[in-house]
């Protein structure tokens, strides 16, 4: 009911109106279907993809399928697989020719790690969504630099190494992709003129840095 109006019968039930026995049975059948959908990943992806497709088609003034397929699920069972997937996603704007460097790529986690943008408006919006669905705001997973023998809560890699990994991978020219990071650019750490040890500190205290910046903007 948060995403859709629901049929008139459900609206009456939701508003506490008196229903006949037959109507109550119909409501129960509808609710059972909804409960199954709420446990269905395919239905979730449909609800996620459909409004995006409608907006994209409206911008292009066209109709038809926007997504190639609904979703593809792939288990990431090793640190190497996780880092490969992260780098692949972070390089999507570059491969598509929409950006030249990771730090100028919009809507990517690597840009957020390089330069967290926290405003009062975005914080209020995120908190309102979290309150509406009774869920905590989940920040980006932090880098922990080394594998711990006790409790591993972050990515067993350093932020500076990950930045260089993405920068190096993005320079590889691929025949099946239109974009790549220009070879003449300095390495990513040199472009920021920040020592690697500073990135190490940032990776260990990423969440605290974000909270400090938010408090200043507030």
Automatic annotation (TrEMBL):
GO BP annotation list: DNA transposition
MF terms (GO), sorted A to Z: DNA binding; transposase activity
Entries under PANTHER family matching the protein: TRANSPOSASE IS200-LIKE DOMAIN-CONTAINING PROTEIN, TRANSPOSASE, Y1_TNP DOMAIN-CONTAINING
Protein name (record): Transposase
Origin organism lineage: Bacteria, Pseudomonadati, Pseudomonadota, Gammaproteobacteria, Cellvibrionales
């Amino acid at each position: 009911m948060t995403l859709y109006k629901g049929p008139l019968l459900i609206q009456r039930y939701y508003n506490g109106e008196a229903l006949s026995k037959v109507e109550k049975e119909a409501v129960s059948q509808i609710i059972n279907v909804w409960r199954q959908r709420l446990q269905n990943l395919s239905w979730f992806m449909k609800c996620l993809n459909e409004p995006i497709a409608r907006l994209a088609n409206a911008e292009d003034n066209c109709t038809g399928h926007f997504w190639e397929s609904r979703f593809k699920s792939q288990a990431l069972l090793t640190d190497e697989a996780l880092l490969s997937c992260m780098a692949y996603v972070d390089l999507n704007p570059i491969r598509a020719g929409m950006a030249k460097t990771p730090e100028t790529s919009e809507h990517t986690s690597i840009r957020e790690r390089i330069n967290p943008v926290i405003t009062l408006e975005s914080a209020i919006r995120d908190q309102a969504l979290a309150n509406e669905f009774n869920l905590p705001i989940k920040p980006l997973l932090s880098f922990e630099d080394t594998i711990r023998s006790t409790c591993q809560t972050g990515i067993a890699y350093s932020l500076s190494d990950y930045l260089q990994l993405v920068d190096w991978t993005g320079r590889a020219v691929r025949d099946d992709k239109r974009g790549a990071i220009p070879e003449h650019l300095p390495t990513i750490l040199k472009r920021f003129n920040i020592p690697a040890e500073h990135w190490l500190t940032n990776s260990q205290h990423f969440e605290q840095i974000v909270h400090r910046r938010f408090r200043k903007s507030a």
